[in-house]
Protein: Cytochrome P450 family 4 subfamily B member 1
Amino acid sequence: MEGGHEREGIFFFYNISSVASCIAHCWRQDTGLDGLTQHGISYCVNFMAYLPSGKGLLVLHGPKWFQHRKLLTPGFHFDVLKPYVKLMADCTKVMLDKWEKLIAAGKSVELFEHVSLMTLDSIMKCAFSYRSDCQTERSVNSYIQAVYDLCYLIHQRLRCFPYHNDVIYWLSPHGFWFRKVSFESLSNLEKVIKERRESLKDEQELKKIQKNRHLDFLDILLCAKDETGIGLSDEDIRAEVDTFMFEGHDTTASGISWLFYCLAQNPEHQQRCREEIKEILRERETIQWDDLSRMTYTTMCINESMRLYPPVPGVSRQLSKPITFPDGRTLPEGSLVVVSLYLIHRNPSMWENPSVFDPSRFSPENLSHRHSHAFLPFAAGSRNCIGQQFAMNELKVAVALTLLRFELLPDPENPPLKIPQIVIRSKNGIHLYLKKVL
Ligand code: HEM
Structure:
């Protein structure tokens, strides 16, 4: 974190090196993200504010954020997450079947795009119980296409500085495309929410739903009520569904893709994970809820991969009051500050040989000696990631089923070129060779 850069490449968010080092310092003084929050840091505008559906949990603040967080937390209870494991496994298998066909050509495979479609498929199933077939037929559903287009357009808007201005963006061809896609996605979403609200009113229908399928996020959002019996409006529900859709598929896609890359680079750890998974599953070809907590070594590898390649490389805040750091430097109210999770995870004063992939850093003995905020892939404090258990489950399911079927090998001709966007990606994708495990 010192100096705000690292050897492999500069990883700044905006040009705020002095602020980054203030935060680095503050963090080193045991203040951490919780400390920053106590010092009065509120949410700043981020990419989710560009979404057409309004403000969801990620960008809300104040009492409304608190109300939504409370209402949505039961949606991530393990009873709700349990049935998702089968859905995640089904989606992973579709992806692996596609890879079986692709490897016949003898070339390396660009994984990131396949993994993104898989996680989009999975979140569609978990959020709406919607079977989209988006992994095999891209044009099949206009909402899926809209989510895909909006992701592209938002990334592009963030990258192109003049587009940060609403008027310039509104008048540009991309702004026109954005409005068109936003309109389509909103009307699609409104229709789905209306139909589901109607069906949940009918008691017979409700019983049928409870019997035939799992509770999905949409059921939970529609049924959520606070102690005064007040639920979420249609507008709030649309914003939350979109937040889950965007926050819940690109992030996990990044986590899974970089994990595969790390395992390809480190065959001995890959083999150890494969052996662990085979030992847990025995003769079974699929994975179940109880298996996930037994994947001890694989979880250490997942954490080590998220240390080196945190899917969300940084978080930003706007100061709601002035802040004084332990070294006496100050920042005024209203400043935009960015905490680079990427740099925290590679801070040499906290991590020995920080660029080496070493899963033993996450063994229980080593964990107990480390600062609780040295590893923050899901952030920390009250605004931490609400979907972290969902994400960890998806990562475990994807890696387990993939390692049972394929050996992952690096493609030295196509090394990834990492770029920090909203999530950490590779400019040229992630290319690996896949070999069938016999
Ligand atoms: C590997 C996958 C994931 C990573 C690394 C990740 C990381 C994060 C991080 C760092 C934050 C804090 C953002 C900030 O402070 O600005 C966050 C917040 C959030 N995440 Fe995730 N996330 C992941 C997956 C998911 C999934 C699957 C969902 C939903 C299904 C989700 C939903 C959210 C929401 C709603 C918030 C805002 C929480 C709040 O402010 O109360 N995330 N995530």
